[in-house]
Write a structure and sequence with these properties.
375 residues, alpha/beta, Rossmann fold, 2 domains, seven-stranded parallel sheet, six-stranded parallel sheet, 17 helices, 13 strands, 14% strand, globular, UDP-glycosyltransferase activity, EryCIII-like_N, hexosyltransferase activity
Length: 375
Amino acid sequence: MRVLVTTVGLVGHIFPLVSIAHALRAAGHEILWATPQPELVAKAGLPAFDPAPTANPMEIIQTVLAKYGLGFQISRDEYAKEIVMGGELLARLGEVTIDRTVAVTQGWRPDLVLHDELQPAGPLIASMYGVPAVEQVLSVCGYREIRDEMRQHLDEVYDRHDVVGPPEKSAFLDTRPPSMRHREFDGWSMRLVPYSGSSVLPDWLLEPPARPRVAITLGTTTPGFMDLSAFRKVVEAASQVDAEFVLATGDADISGFGELPGNVRAAGWVPLHSLLQTCSSMIHHVGGGTSMTGLVTGITHLTMPLSADAWQVSEQIMKRGLGVEVATPDEIDAEMIRTVLFDSSMRAAADEVKAEIAAMPSPADLVPRLEELVG
């Protein structure tokens, strides 16, 4: 069968769907992926095209944030406002991909549409062709409220393509660990097999660390919107802990961190999953994909939520006993890091969640169900 994959053009929306796409391809099915930043998909070994070559996702984000008077950093108390803002933002990011995706697929008619839960092009195109739509969750919380809000901004594009509602057949791939499902979705349980990009791994990452290793990451979007000097206290606290710290911030200018102490390695960009497999803990911004990868690898968490939905994810991590949360990076101190590194109850909880995830059906296990859905 022909499977159209369509995602928002951001790393956190593209990478989570790579493994199920590979599973479908390995089973003999044809994949075509529509997303801005198609080079990320091509590096994963899958065919892709750019459905919005003239659009700039970062400009869209900045424009919508400004409209609602919000900065990149959003407090827990602004969650209701973020739902409204997020609905419009994701509608704008998604709708710019729809027209060209429709044009391309008129000559390449899909039998199934696979999409991330916040890409509105997926359900619309599936409805247009009368084929099933399958969405995949992006975080331990899911984004149901934002998804529902998003639909309210899409009447014009639905009318333009003569689509009146959702597809008749659909499914939901739920990668959340069973013990962290604070609400139930009517979905198919599937193990997240993390994909974090392709790379030749550096030698130091192939060797067991001489002492506990802690990853420090801010994701792929944060460095473009925030002055990294706001996180200087994190590095200062790390200098007082007997552990190795890996600063994984991609191509971002790290001068804002100040002079790095001897136990902090500036790694640039390395595949997050490969890095976390060697770590005991992670200090992070609570991105959906970052957090889920941490759960898969069984590490503990020191969280610095930077958006209202990140506060929701962090809340679930705390409820499961997996770490410590701070309101701002300035609150982090050496004792917090030691707690996250060495607390036995946190370590046991992380091991339990890792085992839960390992027991979930793999992407390959889900392929027959997807084939049956198509019929």
